[in-house]
Amino acid sequence: MSQERAGDLQAVADRVLIEALCAEFTDAVMSGDAERLAFLFTEDGVVRMPHAKVEVIGREALRSAARRLQGSWEYFVQTVHPGSIELDGDSASGRAYIAELGRLRDGSSHSNYGVYHDRYRRTPAGWKFSERVYEVRYVDTTSLTGSPPGLLGGH
């Protein structure tokens, strides 16, 4: 196999693995698995949410923040939609588009659409996030009238 062809196959594999990483993030969020969520980041990984003035650095801080956030939701739904990926050897950058909705335990509701601006790094354990910056593009705090099937009839 030519060197050029092998490089093409590696690029395809890297893109698939990075898209799987983004899907794994949403799955960890949706299943409430803070441990798995933290492991998707490099040891010095960062999450920034400028709209909420939040910056979380490092796996332990990410794990703790995820547990705290997950405990504040009555229910929460997040979906991810693939964006772009730019490969550069053992690092890459990209975007993933997000739709979220949920109701907090205090009764307030939240529905938004946004984009994660990501930086990825290849590690011995595979591709990891080194940085996720969440940009909210649309937010609606109108009360959500629905509920999970186990909570039919309201909260």
Verbal overview:
This protein has 155 residues and is an alpha+beta fold. Helices cover 32% and strands 47% of the residues. The chain has helices at 3-31, 34-39, 59-72, and strands at residues 41-49, 54-57, 73-88, 91-104, 109-123, 126-140. A 6-stranded mixed sheet has the order 2-1-6-5-4-3.
Count of spatially separate domains: 1
Q: Could you report the average pLDDT, rounded to the nearest whole number?
A: 92
What is the C-alpha radius of gyration, as a whole number of Å? 17 Å
Number of strands: 6
Which strand order does the major sheet show? Answer: 2-1-6-5-4-3
End-to-end separation in angstroms reads: 60 Å
Number of helices: 3
The CATH architecture name reads Roll
Shape: globular
The biggest sheet amounts to: 6 strands, mixed
User: What is the C-level CATH assignment?
Assistant: Alpha Beta
Say what the CATH topology is: Nuclear Transport Factor 2, Chain: A
Order of helices and strands: HHEEHEEEE
What fraction of the residues are assigned to beta strands by DSSP? over 45%
Helix content: 25-40%
Low-pLDDT windows of residues: none
Q: Which class do the helix and strand fractions yield?
A: alpha+beta
